[in-house]
Amino acid sequence: MLYISGTVSIQGNRIQRNGSAVSVPEVGGVPDFVTRVYEWLKPEYPKFYKMDLPSQLAFLAGEVLLRDLSLSGYDPAMIALTLTSASGSLDTDLRYAASARTMASPALFVYTLPNIAGGELCIRHKLKGENTFFITPAFDAPLLAGHVEQTLRIPGMEACIGGWIEAVDGHHDVFLYLAEKTKRGLAINHTAEELEKFYQSHYGTVDGGSEKTDHRGA
Amino acid sequence: MEQLMEDLKRQIIEALNLKHLKPEDIGNDQPLFVEGLGLDSIDALELIVLLQQQYGVKLDNPQEGPTVFRSIRTMAEFITTAKKASA
What we know:
The complex is a heterodimer. By secondary structure, chain A is α+β, with helices and mostly antiparallel strands.
């Protein structure tokens, strides 16, 4: 049996953790939301500023998700990662292509692969297990749940971070969760239906629940 | 030279996305790599691009990198010398 221990979603200027809204305080002189979240969490990780947006969002979602769900008890090789996205690193690819018209930027080049966002999560949280990145047209809970389950069938595997990292054209939509064999945190059965429910819960609470906007795959 | 060093600080912050720093946070003789600003090999490539784009100066010998990019002052000295040589 597998369990969902925790979830986090970042969509627009809103964060939800385990289905409940997280309040991000205003920080003077910090206009953009992503930097504001970083300043609030204070992870002391200067490399954050050099990351592209998908990596920054994956990083922040990981910080919120794992705040009370330490992975330190596991062998790093037994913690896996399964991420999905529709656009991958498209925004960064375009920025890199634009820079290449004059002088190609090495700092942009290193982010021109979707799975770099996963790499940043692995570096930050010392994840050394199976690592997969799927490009899918939209958030696909059955695929995600299925692959995470399959991954955790590998002998010795203990936990897997799964999720959806979408950031393109000024919109972002991020969902991360932790699946474990051990019951802790939310301790909800790991099913595609539950993942879909958590993913959708963010949209269901826009403007106090009266509006439901689905930007999946945007 | 002072003005050039101030310009370099602003340009480095912008080029390397060091949003957490202000020009006054960077000392003229502070090491840029490892124990100083903590820049890495990708940043070094970005600094080479910066020199070329902003000052038209090329670093022809990669072996010179660690010396040229030791600090803001060594970068400014390299730019000044290279510009004089090409004048």
